[in-house]
């Protein structure tokens, strides 16, 4: 079995789904002190791009607005959010790349450091069946089928080396021994998994990943540049 793994934010998607979801939660009135929240979120985004983010801290802040909310209610909001704010931001080249792997009969996996409540609906939109993402804790003690979010994550975080661990766990659970693995990512934070797979591909790479990809001779794709040049040519 051949596997094609994809990071989500800034790889298939132009931007970060968690960032945009934070703005959506502010618009819905789920966050009381929006200014303080966004200032902290911005600082943490900078830490992420510098390879220094403690994901636990980011999750503690960004999952707090979900605490006590019914899973089904949040899901309805996420579906609206994905359709209006995320689907239009998927790179055209991403759709084409996914179709190439689909035609080749490859099994596709979306593996992201964003939370499952955001990543799973995007995966469904993209036609990707398998999702590895940050798992959210749900309280089922209210005698309702849907459950309520606790505002916490659980399990191994699919972040940095945790992506490798989660991928290894998934292979064991699925009883899969892949004949070939490819992974597409933009971020220095994904270097552990890029080094683990057979075929690493740097997509819109940050400066550190661009340097590593150049040294290692990894394939590089610049979808954002192509999108920008397409936009500028259509303006002339």
Q: Could you explain the architecture of this structure?
A:
By secondary structure, the chain is an alpha/beta fold. It has a single domain (2-235), classed as Rossmann fold (3-Layer(aba) Sandwich). The protein has ten helices and seven strands. The chain has helices at 17-27, 34-49, 55-63, 71-86, 92-103, 116-126, 161-174, 191-196, 207-216, 223-235; strands spanning 2-6, 107-115, 130-139, 148-154, 180-185, 199-203, 219-221. The chain has a seven-stranded mixed β-sheet. Helix 2 (34-49) packs antiparallel against helix 3 (55-63) and helix 4 (71-86) packs across helix 6. The radius of gyration is 18 Å and the shape is globular. It starts with a strand and ends with a helix.
